[in-house]
Amino acid sequence: MDCRVCDSNDLEPVLDLGEQPWCNHFLKPEEAGHEPYYPLRVLRCRSCATAQLDYTVRKEVMFGDHTYLSGVTKSLSAHFRSVAEEVDRRFGAGRSDKAVLDIGSNDGTQLKHFQALGWDVLGVESSAGTARRANEAGVKTVNAFFNLPTLRSLGRRFDAINAAGVFFHLEELHSVTDAIREGLKDDGVFVVQFLYMKTIMENLAFDQVYHEHLLYYTLETIEVLLQRHGLSMFDAWLAPIHGGSIIGFVSHKGTRATSERLQELRRRESESGCNTAAAYHRFAQQVQEVKARDLAYLRAARAQGKRVFGFGAPVKGNTLLNFFGIGPDLIECLVEKNELRRGLVSPGMHIPLRMESDIDVPPDIYYVLAWNFKQEILANNRELLERGVEFYFPVDPQP
Questions:
Q1: For 166-218, how does the pLDDT look when each residue is reduced to its tens digit (9 = 90+)?
Q2: Structural domain of residue 348, as residue ranges?
Q3: More exposed terminus of the chain, fewer Cβ within 10 Å: N or C?
Q4: What domain count does the chain have?
Q5: CATH number at residue 202
């Protein structure tokens, strides 16, 4: 294959997580065992250093309709609010005609915070059911895949364009990036929020590799893409959300000076060596060590007669469960808040999902798949902790 970013055909395999089902394909019990499997392998481009999957599950399969809702988690909504407030303070203060477009806007959680600050908002969301929820909540949302034709159909430009947790999903990467450039006003700002590969490697958060995530950016590699399309990042910071995400501010090339904090992030990234092949091979070895450790822990717990539930049913959790081979023999159920997943089972390992509100007797151990919301989970479950319920984090993000 050719590199998704720079078109080079000089790529090397660095992480193989085997054949896995599409991890957001939660199943009805009668569907279990009939789900398709796809390769889940990461390659590194030797030309531009971008990490990427070598297989694409079609966007219509993954994003035409799904059960993820961004508004379920309080800490994610709080993060979105802080982003909207910074964008408004720096680029929208005192203006009455400010407009923002959100790409992959989900249920409108991010845009609601912009609305509260007086922005004219528009979302583009590929999932039909999710777009309907957003419109019903008063957030104007177009049900479509965002690309250059979609942007042109809108017939307008924006002061701000936001892409939260979607810019690394893009099958039509170059069409989307062209659309962002074309849809951004001359003094506009593109806010790109993406999982930071440097932090993924530091946290050993390999479960953030799944079929929806086609690309795994660092500051160095995303700049290759942006520069190709006449854009450039001028400011960024590392936020704790999702275990470590870059919140980057991007403008038309040459229109804004680079901030000191972005320069410092770039310096730290360069010193870490995270873009090298050696760093990726070391990461792959460490992932195998985590697998051996956790399987030993869970088998010992079950041998002692302890009940283990999974806490949360995030998409990334299915990467971990399938790669480790963890099924109902080790984890009895996955406990979830999202009512859209009631009565379903996990793809691949077929662990049943139960609603948090239905749990009368807690387990001995919660194996926390939604580890990226660690602080919220611990704060919300102080009573269980005091009663001796153990919360085990297979990935423990650094503060």
A1: 888 888 999 999 999 999 999 999 999 999 999 999 999 999 999 989 999 99
A2: 278-392
A3: C
A4: 2
A5: 3.40.50.150
